[in-house]
Every structure is written in structure tokens, then in C-alpha cells.
Amino acid sequence: MQSIRKKKTNKRGYPNDIPSLSSLKELSFDCPVTFFVGENGSGKSTLLEAIAIGMGLNRKAEAGTFTLPPKRRIASFLRI
Questions:
Q1: Taking 60 as the threshold, does the pLDDT of residue 71 lie above it?
Q2: Of 33, 32, 15, which is closest to residue 24 (Cα–Cα)?
Q3: What span, in angstroms and rounded, lies between the C-alpha atoms of 13 and 17?
Q4: How far apart (Å, rounded) are the C-alpha atoms in residues 28 and 61?
Q5: Global pTM value
Q6: What band does 51 get if pLDDT is binned at 50, 70 and 90?
Q7: What is the predicted pLDDT for the residue at 26?
């Protein structure tokens, strides 16, 4: 994976209203290691799990958790 882009949409509401995602256009992975850095609750883990779901890699999500539907929704807005 070299980059992810947010799909173009004019919809308001979740997940478009999440500050860390609202300004996201493209996230490039130019190096072999990438660090997500931010305040607690800023969406680092949520974005990472949404990427994993979008790539079909999140085995934990298959077991079902209460946070799975929102992450699937975010994943649907990403072009991986």
C-alpha cells in the first residue's frame, strides 16, 4: 500500500465531521515505517483499524465488537 485517499463526498455527519478525517485528502506512505502521532481520542487507532478493514486484514473485527460498524463506515470512505 502506497497511499490512501478519502472518497469525494458532500455528505455531512459521521465520519466526515471527525476533525482528523475532515481535512484528509491523501495519506502517503513513502517510508517502510509510519507512525501515527496525536492526542488521546484523536482517531489514530480508529483510522488504523479502518485501513485494516478496508484491506481485509482485521481478524479481530471478524469476531465482532461494538466499535466495528463505525470503523467499517470510515473504511467505506477510504480509497486504498
A1: yes
A2: 15
A3: 5
A4: 25
A5: 0.64
A6: confident
A7: 84
Q: Which three cell numbers stand for residue 18?
A: 471527525
What is the per-residue pLDDT for 56? 78
CA dist., res. 39 & res. 13, Å (int): 22
Helices 44-54 and 68-76, packing angle to 10 deg: 70
Which residue in this structure is represented by grid cell 466499535? 67
Q: What is the DSSP string of 12-73?
A: -STTTT-HHHHT-SEEE--SS-------TTSSHHHHHHHHHHHTT--HHHHT--TTHHHHHH
